[in-house]
Design goal:
It is built from nine helices and no strands. By secondary structure, it is an all-alpha fold.
């Protein structure tokens, strides 16, 4: 099982305080039915289309992450994810079944609601709705992916010499709009001598080394938590070629 593939669904829970999150949680498990899917009245627009219910593991993760976060405020999310995954693996089948039954019940309600909505639409409305939903899903998928990578602590990409120069000079610039500032900074960059640009080129090279080292460490960590899908293609290829 790919670990925490839907980790972004727990992001909203992190906004609560530790005291609120752990209030009344005397045992390590709380009732998963607090996440039960409640059907609503939907119109024929994509905005009102029901969301897929959370899987049993994601329900468990969403419940446990804020508790672990409150107990370990200084820990990285990737470390907490690893602990939650271990706790899930050690969970007795009888306790897992509670989450699995809740998911099956929610999935049945989800399918019934989808069928109810589609029965009220004309064929042309269904086609238009499917296109709209697809577009929204693609945008949401990109946003979710970005949030997930941020949550998992993926290192920031290295900056170019030009970007480093802009960041430095933009902070110093005080007058004019952002567009005017960028135009001025761009002209200043063009007027730099080769030796002056070399300073920023060296900083960019240093940033590449930083990125390489951080990415290597981060990808090793992702391997540990079962997220091979987040590795760079070149790394995936190397792992297939190199003997274990």
């Amino acid at each position: 099982m790919a670990l925490f593939r839907c980790v972004w669904s727990v992001l909203s829970a992190l906004g609560k305080s530790g005291s609120d999150l752990c209030a009344g949680c005397g045992s390590r498990l709380r009732s998963p039915f607090s996440f039960a899917y409640v059907p609503r009245c939907f119109s024929s627009t994509a905005n009102s289309y029901p969301k897929k219910p959370l899987t049993s593991y994601v329900r468990f993760s969403k419940e446990q992450l804020p508790i672990f976060k409150a107990q370990n405020p200084a820990a990285k999310n990737s470390e907490l994810i690893r602990k939650i995954a271990q706790l899930w693996r050690e969970l007795p089948d009888s306790e897992k079944k509670i989450y699995e039954d809740a998911y099956r019940a929610d999935w049945q309600a989800y399918k019934e609601e989808i069928n109810r909505i589609q029965e009220q639409l004309t064929p042309s409305q269904i086609v238009s709705l499917e296109k709209e939903i697809q577009q929204k899903r693609l945008k949401k998928k990109a946003l979710i992916k970005k949030r997930e990578l941020t949550m998992l602590g993926k290192p920031k990409r290295p900056r170019s010499a030009y970007n480093i120069f802009i960041a430095e000079r933009f902070q110093e610039a005080k007058d004019g709009t952002s567009q005017v500032k960028l135009k001025t900074i761009n002209e200043n960059w063009k007027n730099l001598s080769s030796s002056q640009k070399q300073v920023y080129i060296q900083l960019a090279n240093d940033d590449k080394i930083r990125y390489y080292n951080e990415m290597k460490s981060w990808e090793e960590q992702m391997m540990e938590v079962g997220r091979k899908d987040l590795l760079r293609r070149t790394v995936k290829h190397q792992r297939k070629v190199d003997p274990e």
